[in-house]
Amino acid sequence: MTVQNEPLLKDMSLLKKAGYINGQWVNAKNGKTFDVINPASGDVIASVADLGKDEAKTAVIAAENAFLDWRKITAKQRAILLRRWNDLILENQEDLARLMTFEQGKVIMESRLEIAYAASFIEWFAEEGKRMNGDIIPAVANDRRQLSIKQPIGVVGAITPWNFPSAMITRKCAPAFAAGCSFVCKPAAETPLSALALCELAERAGLPPGLLNVIPSTQAQEVGDVLTKDPIVKKFTFTGSTPVGKHLLAQCASTVKKASMELGGNAPVIIFEDADLEKAVLGALGSKYRNAGQTCICANRILVQENIYNDFLKAFTEKVSEFILGDGLNENNTMGPVISEQAVHKIQALVDDAKAKGATIVTGGAQTQGQFFSPTIIADVTEDMRLFSEEIFGPVAPVFTFKTEEDAIKMANDTPFGLAAYFYSRDIGRVWRVSEALDYGMIGANEVGITSEVIPFGGWKESGLGREGSACGIDEYLEIKYICMGGL
User: Fold this and answer.
1) Rounded Cα distance, 477 and 488, in Å
2) CB-based contacts of 442: which residues, under 8 Å, 6+ apart?
3) Is residue 458 part of a domain?
């Protein structure tokens, strides 16, 4: 298939179609490529090298060699290079955003925000790397001294998702580099171009060959096997679905790798009767429909106290009706497509299940054209519907009712997932009670914009292991070494 609509960028050298290994742009040994599709138009925007197991092994070896030198560089020297990379990303923000919208579909405003978000992790961890402090431990005897130090774990393997194709890479590789580690990443096959553009800018910033390696591939199992089973790889990090995460985690056990997992969610937004209704409507709107509902922390269930249910539904519907669907590169459009036709079918199946069990489609409820799904609100939803227990990953808002605070907490916690939860209330006592009662790793009380580079991002239960961002994030890439100095 020939390329029909190649992205137009100010700097066309950011459009890379080969993998990046040991500082070199490489094609597959067997010559295979795969097409990257614009989800808004269905056009092929690039044919990218389809690397496999052999190239992944080569990348791991290159990363090991780079690690041996990189770990010896001072934290301050590493920070200087990372800051250069951060600056180059921000200087090229518009091109990177356009590239992201072409391959992922989100509206251009959201893409610009993601590029800034991606850069923020590099800036944050460039500085955090200077604070990898150890401890002096009080001696247990006068003839010895005891201390602990932190050292980089080694080569890091990563598999990243398509919904945030830049930020989910930098959130992982920035702390790895700051800690002194090297990195091998397989980006999602839907969105490899954003990852490869980051490599081009990393090279310009002066990051040494082999430090950052990116394996574009449709051969997920083969490449995943290398990253999870190769003993050279000492740490594995993944963002994606819980079933895939469980499988990869089991594979990591064969070499007892340190692993961090950011997995699926089923986020509730609870709106209590004493909430500021206008703020609650806007919060639910922003949380649910960001990136066409394709985020792991977006609202999956909206729980509204019964005596304000109708008022909320009316105000919410009015706001949702204002969305404009279309190509994300058009500044006037406010929602783009979902990532694939398969995603459309899954969303439609969840809507149809709710309709068949008695739910009411307030607005939307169907595919409009191509891979666009109309922003949807579903009322009269009950807990036996798939929408209650399954992650939607699309622009569908199921609205439930509850009677009491205890009912709301029980409904919200009735899930194996525990990534993010939100609620609205002006009762300070309730804010404390509900925040502590919700079994989730991240809570937004009267706020849904909870993420940034400075917070510990991660979930409870089957939503993941470990934390990304914040001061906690760099510890995921460090080992603690205890040293006892005797004979004093």
Assistant:
1) 33
2) 297, 419, 420, 421, 450, 455, 457, 458, 459
3) no
In a domain, 1, yes or no: no
Structure confidence by residue, pLDDT tens digits, 315-351: 999 999 999 999 999 999 999 999 999 999 999 999 9
Catalytic residue list contains 262 = yes
E strand map for 31-115: 33-37, 44-49
- Non-local CB neighbours of 91 within 8 Å, separated by 6+ positions: none
Contact (CB, 8 A) for 440 and 418: yes
| Contacts with 261 (C-beta within 8 Å, 6 or more apart), sequence order | 237, 238, 239, 245, 248, 249, 464, 465, 466
Q: Each residue of 234-269: b (16+ CB within 10 Å) or e?
A: bbbbbbbebebbeebbebbeeeebbbbbbbbbbbbb
How far does Cα 24 stand from its chain's mean position? 27
pTM of the model: 0.97
Structure tokens at 91: 């200087």
One domain, residues 438 and 474: no
Same structural domain, 154 and 258: yes
Q: Assess if residue 6 is contained within a domain.
A: no
- Choice among 103, 114, 128, 262 that is catalytic: 262
Domain assignment present for residue 32? The answer is yes
Q: Which two tokens stand for residue 301?
A: 């269930």
Instruction: Give me the domain span that covers residue 347.
Output: 267-452
Whether 253 and 235 map to the same domain: the answer is yes
| C-alpha to C-alpha distance for 171 and 414, rounded to whole angstroms | 30
Segments of the chain scoring below 50 in pLDDT? 1-2
The number of residues making up the chain comes to: 488
**Spatial separation of the C-alpha atoms in residues 173 and 477, rounded to whole Å:** 10
Per-residue confidence (pLDDT) for residue 191, from 0 to 100 = 98
Q: Domain containing 409 — which CATH number? A: 3.40.309.10
Long-range contacts of 354-358, Cβ-Cβ distance < 8 Å, separation of 24 or more? 354/378, 354/381, 354/385, 354/386, 354/387, 354/398, 357/382, 357/384, 357/385, 358/382
Looking at the DSSP bridge assignments, the partners of residue 372 are: 369
